Amino acid sequence: MDDETLKLPHGMQIFQRGWLSSNNILFICDTQTALVDSGYVSHAAQTLALVQHALQGRQLDLLINTHLHSDHCGANALLQHTYGCQTLIPEADVHAVTNWDEEQLSFTATGQECPRFRFDHVLKAGDQLLLANLSWQVLAAPGHDPHSVILYCAQEGILISADALWENGFGVIFPELEGESGFAEQAATLQLIEELDVRLVIPGHGAAFTDKQAAVGRARSRLDYLSADPKRNARNAIKVLMAFMLLDRREMTLTQLSACLNQVRMMRIAAAHLALPIEHLLPQLIQELIKAGAARLEGEHLLSC
Ligand SMILES: [Zn+2]
């Protein structure tokens, strides 16, 4: 890739993380420091170490969450405890965070964890944020998460796309699993992104990339494939949730996996879409994860690769 197009503005840096944690974007200028997204709880100490190292003794003033999935806000509590930073969350999540409703916040439903944190301000579509002396526009990006926002800097042509657009795809369309609309919203979000003038996309996961149009094209065909048969979305969702659990725990027994499919609400709902008994479904999913290079089987243990 062209080094010039990948170049970040002064005061801005990306911590590209493994798949379990979202990427973090740090902004430093004379008047303020800010971080976008904080990763998963099991990597919280690593997130703090990365931030501390980069800040060289300065405080973190602002913490911004694109959305409140556990892999984007898992170190919020630790960062707040360490720095007392002001925290901005999407407006639609205020009620769930105020009451710490873990079901509504998706943590219980996905079998994931996130320590309780507080918020100070909200992010609304149309807001402007000043980060590293640049103006960033807050845009609504429903689809993967109905409340997600993305951040766009027109002056630099940079988009922080969260899980709405990755170089190859996007996050699971969770609302559709529960009978709510998500495919149409994701299509509209891709349309919105297509119309932005962007030279660099910083996704929630994976490396930053420059060819936004090609990524939008791939995302559209993926969305067409998933929305043509909702079972495909359900199957993808279970595999993503299983792969996430494996990444966190390193290994799980077949008994544990089977219990999760029965007990973790989002997995149970997705499995119900597939209308197969768990004892038939689980071996299929395991084979697909192995084929995708996400896991390997050793006797009764499935291990993360
Ligand atoms: Zn997400």
Molecular structure report:
- Strand 3 (33-36), helix 2 and strand 4 (62-64) form a beta-alpha-beta unit.
- The chain is globular.
- By secondary structure, it is an alpha/beta fold.
- It has 13 helices and 14 strands.
- The strands form three sheets. The chain has a six-stranded mixed β-sheet, with helices on one face. A five-stranded mixed β-sheet has the order 7-8-9-10-11, with no helix packed on it.
- It folds into two domains: 3-228, Ribonuclease Z/Hydroxyacylglutathione hydrolase-like (Metallo-beta-lactamase, Chain A, 4-Layer Sandwich); 230-304, Orthogonal Bundle (Arc Repressor Mutant, subunit A).
- The mean pLDDT is 96.
- The structure holds zinc ion.
Topology diagram in text:
Layout: H1 3-6, E1 12-15, E2 24-28, E3 33-36, H2 44-55, E4 62-64, H3 70-73, H4 76-83, E5 86-90, H5 94-98, H6 107-110, E6 121-123, E7 128-131, E8 134-140, E9 149-153, E10 158-162, H7 174-177, H8 183-195, E11 200-203, H9 212-228, H10 230-249, E12 251-253, H11 254-263, H12 265-274, H13 278-291, E13 295-298, E14 301-304
Parallel strand pairs: 3-4, 4-5, 5-6, 10-11
Antiparallel strand pairs: 1-2, 2-3, 7-8, 8-9, 9-10, 12-14, 13-14
Keywords:
305 residues, alpha/beta, Metallo-beta-lactamase, Chain A, Arc Repressor Mutant, subunit A, binds zinc ion, Metallo-B-lactamas, NDM-1-like, MBL fold metallo-hydrolase, RibonucZ/Hydroxyglut_hydro
- SSE succession: HEEEHEHHEHHEEEEEHHEHHEHHHEE
Would you give the CATH topology of the largest domain? Metallo-beta-lactamase, Chain A
- What is the overall number of helices? 13
Under the CATH scheme, which architecture of the largest domain would be assigned? Answer: 4-Layer Sandwich
List the ligand species: zinc ion
Q: What is the SS-derived class?
A: alpha/beta
Strand order of the largest sheet: 1-2-3-4-5-6
Which regions have little confidence, pLDDT < 50, spanning 5+ residues?
Answer: none
Radius of gyration of CA atoms, rounded to a whole number: 19 Å
Helix content: 40-55%
Largest sheet: 6 strands, mixed
